[in-house]
Fold each of these.
Amino acid sequence: MNDSMNFSLITSEIFLLIALCVIMIVDLFQRDKERKLTFTLTQLSLFVLFVLGFNDLNAPKEIAFNGHWIADQLAVVLKLAIYTITFIALFYARAFINHRSLMRGEYYLLTLFAVLGMMIMVSGNSFLTIYLGLELLSLSLYALIALQRDSKLASESAVKYFVMGGLASGFLLYGISLVYGATGSIIISSVSDYYATNQVNLISQFGLVFIVIGLAFKFGAVPFHMWLPDIYHGSPSSITAFIASVPKIAAFGMLIRLLVEAFGQFISDWSEMILIVALLSVAFGNVIALAQRNLKRLLAYSAIAHVGYFLLGVVPGTDASYSAAMYYIIVYALMTLAGFGIVIFMSTDKNEYQQITDLQGLGKYHPWYGLMFSVVMVSMAGIPPFIGFWPKLEIFRHLIINGFVLEAIIAIAFSVVGLFYYLQVIKEMFFAETNESPAITSSRSLKIAISINCLLLIMLGIMPDSIYQYCLSAFGLIS
Amino acid sequence: MSFQVIVFYSFAAWLIFAALMVISSKHSVKAALFLVLAFASASGIWMLLEAEFLAVSLIVVYVGAVMVLLLFVVMMLDVDYAALRQGFVKKLPLALIIALGFFAILYSFITHGDFSGEAYASPAPKPEDYSNIKELGRVLYTDYVLAFEIAAVILLVAIIAAIALTFRGRRSRKAQVISKQLAANKKNRLKVLKMDAVKTAPKSESNEEAEE
């Protein structure tokens, strides 16, 4: 264990912070309404971060800053996923915010701050660092949603998100404080060392329950899911695409650090709680999504169901199952980004696209985009050979290997239920009787971005190993 | 009884008295001022713990800044105190039961179990040249430097978010948005209505009724 101030381990974070300050100043002096330079610099810094992160792959695990910071393969892989998906999300965002009141330099700045928060979350090795990263992320997201000041819906969902996020943070902090009281340390490795030698007492269990509740709140898992559809619906679409995808990856990192690394000793205590939450999410998410007519809400309920599947991957408690869960969450982020990409794509300057029925006639008049959107939906439903199938397969496989056969069967059954509403969207695109062509006013860059995103879903589906090998290496299963 | 104990109990008594007055005082400005008293006596207790810096910063931050702001808010808002106090007597028994129950729980926690006073040794008195600020600074800038920096970044986000959410730019500006003008199309601007070339005026029923 290395206690020194090894600043080389936080090079990426330092770079991002400096880049942020530079972009902030540059943005001040820009007269360009479209903020082209701000956008270019933002994307460029994400690219540099990716290169920096790529260099760190397969570096040895190191702990620094008196135990508050950890640099390992898990953190590096999660960060790479965060950079990539934010990069794509910003292309969508640029096309969406261009003609709206949202078009301000702060949009990019706050997104980058959120990225910084997520980077801290995935490599924090103490409760304090992880919590601060979480707050940095959440504060940026609240402000991002509220950025559309003149929209009642956006302001409402920003306040809702703020209150619910505060509540979740409160639960998490309360749990952490109890664990601190029981173990006398906030450093995760010390906490797990303490439990390796000492018995689990009532206070720790109590704290653990609160931590699990806080995490479930952040993930939006049933029964702590109430806020999620409202906020996904109320936020401007490009921001929904961002909050629905990237923070989930960071939250996975937080879950691994908090539950697996700190409380690995009493996995049986928390895996049962997670199992209940996961099965409820799979059931409720899929069933309620059946009744949705609004595509954004439909995707929100499908997000709840997907979180359930992902949490099922954490339940068996083996390294292989964690890597399957990680694979699931990264793939899910990519898919949901494409899903909200459809919403952004179909929105015109004046009004945001809302209802599923607005897609009618897309297959007839714009067959290419009809095909692309079908790929997204089928992939989300988890049908081979698209990418959505493989992580689901891995998760069910690990459930069955570890003896959770009944749970796997329930999850698969609800997966079939889920197929219905995904296919319903495709039905509206191709088989609805209409002579009206839906208007497509989006820019060329958005058309290219969404095509690439959807083709990526097919390509990665044909080569499922391309992401999975990194997830396996994150848990030391392959080198 | 040593001098320290006398100081502790007198500050504690002040603290409890002030806290009780905060919730029972009829006037909200008075309640806010009693809260100031509560903070001041709490800071006295911290001083006994040899946490001088925290004691001073409690006075500076809470008494000096937060409470003054709160007082401004209380004085500016027109609060109907009579309405606030309605049902006070009716709900008093329930409130007392809850308060006593909570007190019992806290008392049992402090006397028994993992968080009891016996489980922790009483802090040893510090040497004479001990500096609270120095120690805090040492810990803050070595062990917790990372957390300290992240907290600073969070404050930066707060500044940016506050400006982004409130600043609306100069008001009286009529600038052209060229991209918007170029993006204008026939569909959004022009509405073509189908109408017959000749339209016969419909016989209105109200006229006929009037003629009859």
Note: The mean pLDDT of chain B is 84.
Amino acid sequence: MKFPDPHDVKAKTIPGTEGWERMYPYHYQFVSDDPVRNQYEKDTFWFNDALHYPEALYPFDTIWDEAWYLALSQYNNRIFMVPPVRGVDHRIINGYVYISPVPVKDPDEIGRRVPHFMERAGHYYKNWDELEAKWKIKMEATIRELEALRIPTLPDMESLSVVNDACGESQGYHLLKNYDDLINLGIKCWQYHFEFLNLGYAAYVFFLDFVQKLFPSIPTQRVTQMVSGIDVMMYQPDDELKRLAKLAIELGLDSTFTSSPEWEVVEASLKKNTKRGDEWLAALNKVRQPWFNVSTGTGWFHHDRSWNDQMNIPLSGIATYIGKLQQGVSIERPTEKVRAERDRVTAEYRGLIERDEDRKQFDELLATARTVFPYVENHLFYVEHWFHSVFWNKMREVAAVMKDHGVIEDIEDVWLLRRDEIKQALWDVVTAWATGVTPRGVTVWPKEIGWRKGVMQKFKEWSAPPAIGTAPELIQEPFTIVLWGVTNKSLADWSSVQEVKDLSSIVELKGFAGSAGIVEGRARVCRTVAEVSELQEDEILVAPTTSPSWAPAFAKIKACVTDVGGVMSHAAIVCREYGMPAVVGTGHATKVISSGMMLRVDGSTGVVSIER
Amino acid sequence: MAAVASEGQPLICWLEECRKESVPLVGGKCSSLGELIHAGVRVPPGFALTTAGYRAFMAESGLEREMQFLLQKLDCRDLEALERASASIRAAIEAQPFSEQLEDLVAERYRQLSVRCGIPAAPVAVRSSATAEDLPGASFAGQQDTFLWIRGADEVLHHMRRCISSLYTGRAISYRANRGYSDEQMAISVGVQKMANSYAAGVMFTIHPINGDRSVIVIDSNFGFGESVVSGEVTPDHFAVNKVTLDIIDRTISQKEICYTVDLKNQVSYAMEVPIERRNIQSLTDDEITELAWMGKQIEKHYGRPMDIEWSVDKDLPAGSNIFILQARPETVWAEKKTPRCAPVETSAMDYILAGMLAGRKLS
């Protein structure tokens, strides 16, 4: 299968963005001046990682892409020695990330890697629970280090203690050093992110693969159902909201929570209500760390703020649950029912397996998939939510110093700079501060940032081709298969998706069957979690993607449709837990559907029909 | 009730009284229908004249002796003589009235059946149910007759005799002679069953016919009688249902040009054009698909193997009690093909993961 030549795609520069390459690391560019690299890029298959990056990437946010470029690749290629694959290569065009799994081509080399892989991966699979417990300790220590990291401001005169303690270091030096520490903690956190993930996905992929061999027509959601109902951290933030809602009712404070959508107003009136209000606030403070670090987005981007940053969001969740409780509706997830159904489904499929050997293999792979499942889910809370939410705010502290010294005009401008540019600008600020002169950046960065804002806007309007380069015959990299769903079918869909021009003529969208069932109802398009408050009872939620902080929305809706995500995505998992239909990864539901349209969501076949 | 012959066997019985052990009494077809009812599956109601009833008829009427006389000196290689003998036996059977007792029994059952269906003089199918039909190597398939859309007790009695006489076609006589079965040992049962007045009908497999997936039930459906689906005259609607969860996992709604309906006067079904506005309408509701698949699952469970099933949705009866199974037999294609094992030689999860990684995913 042939896709456009990446260099041709890149050559069609969007007018007004000439020179955009400097917004991203130089090694992310498709090149024309290096014949060998150019040929490699032509012969390689690159697909747009729209799963993680539905929009053009801000220069600073490239940090997590670089972090996983390194971490995923090293674990595959240098640590576990996955026999047929190396890492995953990366490029950027117009702010969109293209990735490509790199195979090991020499059969002898693959053979040589096999015993190492068996020993190394085997060690992890065998000692999974014990190693995972160690991982949690490492990860929590890293987050504590991040939380303790101080971003100093630059005083006109250093404290006397610097002299009396003969400390020998200035705040300027600490600003530079702590910025480096901040970045390094981020990179380290992503080292841990992939310690278990490659193997976790592999176990999951090959359980899926085996079950699909036994039952070629089995919907993927039924395979994931067999590993569902295991307690994962992702539910905890939502569970805390439910507990807080119950406590509010117990304390007779329920009317306070429905009096205003503004947290500040509610908080003030709780404080007035001294004793009971204080009791409730104390309960809240106990759970804000870590649970309210849950991000309102995927956590991958600076604009994904946490509940702690936007208390109106958890407040609206609490108000929803109070309303449900007042109506006498249960707000508990039907966990017992979910587990009973999981066990029934698993046993029935198992009963349909004809051969004893196959049944034994099924049992082994299922057990492994269930062992790895909690990690595959829980790492998201630790890294993308907890760590990232704290990290973005530390970066805002850095930006505040830069703003104070005039190299940027607004804190949120900082994301338009690469992290190495920020380092340079900090050197500029610190040396100018030390010297008592004006930083050069004062005239450089605001102008550059203004131009970059225009470029970002043009990038957002650009439609990135789903795949470029030359498709290989064989894909062996487990992430590429499970996470991005690169298959013959998806490639075919990708080449056809470009052809749709008139969005208002579309009456049917196809996605992944995320959670079974069929319902009809009115659509509510929520582009961000802040819009969830507009949801009415029994509407169908249409969202770019969802994350744990969207959880309260699921108590109101009767189905969910997303642009991005597979059957293991948050929306699919939560809908299965609630027993409502979901169609995920439709590509462009939020563009095609508008609020108020009548939809028919078939979560068993993955089809959304739109009544026009 | 005097419905019992001297040896203690009933002359007539309801289908729900039949079991798989009843083959000598009611033949293969009726016993398998009884077995389905026993499995909790809804089949069109009906009754059977048993082999005891058949023997009583033959003995009381003196036909047995007449037949022996005709067949004794018959040379089966003489085709002309064979056909002559067959014709005269069959004419004799069809002309011979049942005893009053048998007539009363049949008429009473038929009346009760009509009451059960809520239709005066319910249209029925009258078909022979041979005792030897399903024996390996003794296939009589298609050699007995089926009469559809029969109404009224006299008509039912008449067609029962025609079914009985079908045991004496030339081909059947010579077949038995060649195989060494004696004609006196042969017995036939006749089933009388409500005609399914199909709103929609078709076939269902409790295994995926293409890939042998045992977790799938596929249903092909069209409006009217199942003939259009079985014969392949139309592209039917196609549904795939998950056997474990009963979700509809795939559906194709086809353009259905024709369907079969009944001409009650001439007692035949015929093809008619489906009105244009109905052609692209789904021929079964989702609830019906789910209920049908549930029945398929019960049938498979009962027989312990994948099944090939004919079914019908009846327009005379209300939703919830209108889906009928007309026939169920073991699926044969995949039963013989024995699916290949999926697990490689190794069974540890690690080995499987490694093998899978090395194999990769083929893209074309």
Note: Chain B has a mean pLDDT of 85.
